[in-house]
Design goal:
The chain is of the alpha/beta class and 488 residues long. 34% of the residues lie in helices and 20% in strands. Strand 3 and strand 4 form a beta hairpin. It is elongated and about 80 Å long. The two termini are 22 Å apart.
Length: 488
Amino acid sequence: MRCIAAPQQWIQSPCDVLVVAISDQWRNSPLVLELDQATGGFLGKLIDSGEVSTDPNQLTTLYSVLGVAASQLLIVGTGEQQNMPPRVANRAAGAAMKRIATMYRERVRFAGFSGTPIAERAALCGAMVACVGQDLFRQEKSLVQPEYCEWVGVHENNLLKGSVIGESINLTRKLVNMPANYLHPESFVEEIFRSGQQYKFEVEIWDKSKLEEERCGALLGVARGSSCEPRLAIMRYRGGDSTAPPIALVGKGVTFDSGGYSLKPSDSMLTMKCDMAGAATVLGIMQAAAMLNAKCNLVGVVGLVENMISGNAFKLGDVLMARSGKTIEIHNTDAEGRLVLADCLSVALDSQPSKIVDFATLTGACVVALGNDISGAMSNDKEWQSEITSAADEFGEYVWPLPMYDFFSEQIVGKIADIKNVGEGRWGGAITAAKFLQEFVGKTPWTHLDIAGPAFLDSAKAWCDAGGTGTLVRTFAEMLTRDTPEQG
């Protein structure tokens, strides 16, 4: 799908569908008044009568409207705020595009989404995500991208940047949606190589022998039960001063999680292809940063394993030695992601980063605490955590901080090894998991993002199909490219 500027005569120029965003204060919008005038007041009468709703994400389709060249006029409500914040713009554009994408369209046009540069890009991302479904292997797709998507009043710079971020979100979503018989550690590495070669960031891969040489005992312990050998990928993007330390992005890449001998129930295991969403998020961010020439240095580290059962699989009561030298008692083989991340964090520290952020579908406890739509943020550095949570709010995604009091560390103290891989009982499980990870970051500012809730949708939303969401790719792509000149 090509996102381009709309023609100046946007009402009179033909297209398959003209989408118009309308708020409660529609009379304050010159664009909507222009459209109302073109229809001889017909649109305004429909709004006043309640036949057309301005409630958020409510859609009204009108056919063969006099004065409008489009075959269909699709109205999407945005609620009370005339100047749409990014989250509203993203979801309204997504809801409209998801309706449009039920069949092939050559040319669709979006009006009423011009505003702040951030909101314009959020709208583009919403539209790009909404027309790509999870049905990767269906012969007949449920959603079809239009050939051209035209935007009225959106600046060219935001068309370009929004398209790049949307493409990167969809890369993350595609990987999350791929089943484990197609996406495993080796094939994931191929995706990383493909992106690195195309967008010019460096890729280094550690195979099993290299992981053994590097003493990555925690990651290798998780991988032991699978016939698929593990991999660790290091991505390096150099867009800043050559002397500036990088920001490290670390991702959990468990391409399938059976739970190991702490076996998951069948219903819980069905969607465990998504347990590599953290690694897919890191790749999506790295690609976006490289495509947009971000003025910073980045290192991305992802650990790629399957957590399976065999005669060689790691067991409850085992003791693993992490790359850092710390020893770990295994009290639950389904608490495996933190073991993978332990060695990834150690590798990330080798680059002497200024700060670290990790992404992981780590705990069901975080979903219990915050629900399906919010990522949990836990950190050893309040300033770094606040920068991330504030950015997510600015760009229209949900991240909420959880406390990291010292007494939570008491729950992971081991009896026969340095630490154990779960806390005491069910309570505070997202936090004790984060306290485990904190053992491997030293004094480097670090924030852990538990994306277990929002990374994967069990059922579709009005603005997005079920499956992978690409959560937080947009926030970090925007954060890392703040130095890109804003226009519009």
